[in-house]
Design brief:
The complex is a heterodimer of chains A (194) and B (267). With 194 residues, chain A is α/β, with parallel strands linked by helices. Chain A has helices at residues 3-12, 28-43, 60-69, 84-87, 106-120, 132-138, 141-157, 173-182, 189-192; strands spanning 18-23, 49-55, 77-81, 97-99, 124-130, 161-167, 185-188. Chain A has one domain (3-7, 14-123, 131-192): P-loop containing nucleotide triphosphate hydrolases (Rossmann fold). Chain A contains 9 helices and 7 strands; from the N terminus they run αβαβαβαβαβααβαβα. In chain B, the strands form 2 sheets. In chain B, strands 5-4-6-7-3-8-9-10-11 form a 9-stranded mixed beta sheet. The chains are: A alpha/beta (194), B alpha/beta (267).
């Protein structure tokens, strides 16, 4: 699926929608880059928009380098980085990132998202959670379910568009069931084709 | 984990009936806290903020006063151990802090040791008469300045100079009554250890006050969170749940404490 098509679908969603974006592990790199292009450049660079990227899979610095290659303006994206401390990649913190000590500190992730939402006060905010699979590596299903339930409902009530990245075939059934319960829409990249 | 304090907040003191829910509120200005308090602390209440070292007691108290001063409610910080200059410096870490609030006398700092000296209360142990003088002096200060929010940081340090439990009980009771009569909402900071099993050093203060806000550090698989819980608040249908807090430049933020792995936690 081309980034423009994904962008069109995301733009058509009403505020406060929570979406799971399912990525096929066999096409992961291409699909991830398409999602990033659509969410950060095509949708996230518009007027009065701001994106908060919760980085659990790769450090914020890596995601930000990709975003820079896409010419995403620095003032349109902030990061909650929950992986750099754990990977000991914290030497050069980004000015547009806040760092959580570990992906297990789920309450801290929620509080940093809250902090950034209040700081930016953008009328059109998007939160990207990358990814539910990485969170599941570090947290038991019961805790992760509670986290997703509270975070997504809070963001919904605040009219924030939430994109939860999920790699298919790698997910625990309990988290999959919870995602189905709390998200409004699922975009399966594998079914949409190139 | 269970909160580190006792399961009940002690008996109600005689003569202080439970006020009806729906009293006028002192809006703390700390958004999450006001939400779980049902709109704020009932005006005129005396609240104990209890917690061990590094749990955010002083920061919470300072934000309570600063938010009040911003709303036009004159606020007074009575410091027992920390110098006012240092406290004002700490305040400047809040992005919303305005020095004019201090300059204009909307936010007042008084070092209690200076007050002791002026009143001649320099003996190691304070007698009942001296405690009475102290209460009347604080009351007069509150009246003359039109103070609507008071913080005493910390009650524990003050209590080190009080020998008998009865004297502490009498001091807290009288201070609370005088502040309530002045329509002043007061916060008394209580320093406890994680294993103390009560909300104050001597265990008598918690039965007198109208409310208790407990703070502690909870550990989950090696990670530490600051946790807040309202243990009691007379006149308020409040939440009893636990909340993780973070101290940020835009103020204290709160979110529910996840329970999934509660069994893994330590106090």
């Amino acid at each position: 699926m081309a980034p423009a098509e994904i962008g069109d679908r995301l733009r058509a969603l009403p505020p406060g929608t929570a979406v799971t974006l399912k990525l096929d592990p066999r096409e992961y790199a291409d699909q991830y880059f398409s999602v990033l292009t659509a969410a950060l450049r095509d949708v996230g660079s518009g007027a009065n928009t701001h994106t908060i990227y919760v980085a659990v899979t790769s450090p914020a610095a890596f995601v930000w380098s990709l975003a820079q290659a896409l010419d995403v303006p620095a003032d349109r994206v902030s990061f909650v980085d929950a992986i750099s401390h754990l990977m000991m990649h914290y030497e050069n913190p980004l000015p547009n990132a806040t760092y959580v000590e570990s992906p297990r500190a789920l309450e801290s992730i929620m509080l940093r998202v809250e902090y950034l939402l209040r700081r930016t006060r953008s009328p059109r905010s998007t939160v990207i959670v990358d990814s539910v699979n990485s969170l599941a590596i570090h947290n038991p299903p019961e805790l992760l379910s509670e986290f997703l339930h509270i975070l997504l409902n809070n963001l919904k009530s605040r009219q924030v568009l939430t994109l939860v990245l999920e790699t298919t075939e790698e997910q625990a059934a309990s988290v999959e069931q919870l995602l189905n319960l709390v998200v409004d829409e699922t975009i399966d990249m594998a079914r949409l084709g190139p | 984990m269970e909160s580190p304090g006792p399961s009940a907040a002690g008996p109600e003191p005689p003569g202080r009936a439970e006020p009806a829910v729906g009293l006028e509120r002192c809006v703390t200005g700390i958004e999450g806290l006001d939400n779980i308090l049902g709109g704020g602390i009932p005006r005129g209440n005396t609240v104990l903020i209890a917690g061990s070292v590094g749990t955010g007691k002083t920061t919470l108290s300072l934000e309570f006063l600063l938010r009040g001063a911003e709303r036009g409610e004159r606020s007074l910080f009575l410091s027992v151990t920390e110098a006012s200059d240092k406290l004002v410096q700490n305040l400047s870490t809040f992005e919303f802090f305005r020095t004019d609030l201090v300059v204009d006398g909307k936010l007042v700092f008084v070092d209690l040791p200076v007050l002791y000296e002026k009143l001649g209360l320099e003996s190691e142990e304070l007698s009942s008469e001296e405690l009475d003088i102290l209460v009347r002096t604080i009351r007069d200060l509150v009246r003359s300045l039109g103070i609507k929010r008071l913080v005493l940081d910390s009650l524990t340090s003050l209590c080190y100079r009080i020998r008998k439990d009865e004297q502490i009980r009498e001091f807290v009771l009288r201070l609370g009554e005088e502040m309530s009569a002045c329509d002043c909402t007061s916060v008394l900071v209580s320093e406890i250890t994680p294993t103390q099993g009560r909300y104050s050093t001597r265990g008598v203060e918690e039965a007198i006050v109208d409310g208790i806000i407990l703070l502690w550090n909870a550990r989950r698989r090696g990670d530490i969170h600051r946790v807040l819980q309202i243990v009691k608040m007379r006149g308020s249908a409040h939440s009893h749940a636990q909340y993780v807090i973070e101290l940020t430049p835009i103020g204290i933020l709160m979110t529910p404490h996840l329970k999934g792995a509660r069994a893994d936690e330590e106090g």
